[in-house]
Amino acid sequence: MTGPEETRPEGDEQAVEAANAALYAALEAGDLDRLTDVWVSGADADDVRGAVCVHPGWPVLRGRASVLRSYALIMAHTEYIQFFLTDVEVEVLGDVALVTCTENILSGGEAEAEGELGPLVGGRVVASNLFRRTAEGWRLWSHHGSPVLTSGADEE
C-alpha cells in the first residue's frame, strides 16, 4: 500500500496537465474569463515573481494586468484558433511545475472580402508554461512561446 507522499506527484502531474489544457481550451473558445482563471491571481500575481508572458514576436510582459490585456487583444483579432499539442512533457518540483510542448496552431487568416471567412493558416510554436501551486490549485505563472522556424529536416 502506498502513502499520500508516494501518490502525490502523479496526481500533481495530472492536475498540471489539466491546468495546461484549460489554458488552450480558453484560448480556443475566446473566453477571457476562463483564461483569467488559469493565471495566478491575488498575492501570487502581485509579488515580485508575478505573471510573465512572452508571445512569439512580443516583448516580455510582466504583471497580471499586462498579460491579460495581451490575451484580450489577441482574442479580439483572432476569429478562429485551434491548438493541437504535441511533445507535451510535465515536470513537477514541489510547488512549481513546468510544461513544455509544441503548439501546432490552426487559425483563421484575414478574409479577402468582408463577410467571408479567411483561409486557414498553420504554424508551430514551442512553449514553456510554468505553473505555481496556489490555494486555488495550479495556476499559470509564466508562458513563453517561440515560433518554430525550421522544418526539422535539417536537425541531426
TrEMBL record:
Pfam families listed in its UniProt record: SnoaL_3 (PF13474)
Bilayer-crossing regions: none
Positions of the SnoaL-like domain: 16-148
Protein name: Nuclear transport factor 2 family protein
